[in-house]
Amino acid sequence: MESNTRPGADPSACAITLRGVAKHYGAVRAVDGVDLDIRRGEVFGLIGRNGAGKSTLFKMMLGLVKADAGSLLIQGAPVNERSFRSVRRGIGYLPENVVLYDNLSGLETMRYFARLKGVALTECEAVLDRVGLGAAAKRAVREYSKGMRQRLGFAQALLGSPRVLFLDEPTTGLDPEATRAFYQTLRQLRDAGVTMIITSHILAELQERVDRLAILSAGRIQALGSVQELREHMALPLRLEVLAHEAGADAVAAALARLPVQDLQRQGLRSHANCPRPAKMAVLGALAALDGAVRDVVVHEPSLEDVFFGFAD
Hints:
This protein is α/β, with parallel strands linked by helices. The chain has 3 domains: 11-90 and 162-225, P-loop containing nucleotide triphosphate hydrolases (Rossmann fold); 105-154; 234-312, 2-Layer Sandwich (Alpha-Beta Plaits). The chain is 33% helix and 28% strand. The protein contains 11 helices and 14 strands. The strands form 3 sheets. A 6-stranded mixed sheet has the order 6-7-8-3-9-10, with helices on both faces. It has a 4-stranded antiparallel sheet with strand order 2-1-4-5, covered by helices on one side. The protein has a 4-stranded antiparallel sheet with strand order 12-13-11-14, with helices on one face. A hairpin with a 2-residue loop joins strand 1 (14-25) and strand 2. The relative contact order is 0.14.
């Protein structure tokens, strides 16, 4: 697992750099001394319970809330300084709660945001097509479903081909097909070098889709790294599911009972057990040596949810 600070990091490789960032509201330390480097072209997850400081940190990185202490650099420019204005034009933001004008059509909404961002109006229809709203472009937003409103919010964040995207609970209201399309778009953006920071309470969605993530609790980063790095740091056991051939069921059960596994359970031909990570290869080797008694072995890695509760508790 990585440390929160990376003193040897190449500044040119970082899209976002935070050092000692803090924000207090009276006695409440919403963000309490955060150090963080987010690399260019990285999909970075930021997770934590409600009140952990995620939204405050987001707002400070966007320049919407001023930090009480520390420094924040986005694309090399200090946030809240004059030089940040030009950088802000290259930032897209999808807030958790998208507020739209119901009387405008989807296309009129996009043109409104395009004017605010100084983006060519000719870009609007192409972006609506990209998020699957081309056919609904001229319909009033009041007729949009929650998922369509969310996609329209995503579309406005994509205006101007941003190099940095902040996405706060981006799949709220999206059905499975729209969620898959959303993450396909993120993969395309990542391949184009766009840096993305995502917060979500749907941890299963993030598990296979972020390059790295930070777990925030009480305003501080409790853990930082890839999902696999965090799994290994926590030393959470693997879950084994062993399916035996009928003739070899007893031999498999007896072998498992002798191996360094815990919480062994047997249901007919199927056995389940927790396996300490260091014992993985020895256990698999022992099962493979049972002369065909084993029909199949499935190894389940700890989920991101398991990792999250391990660090956040």
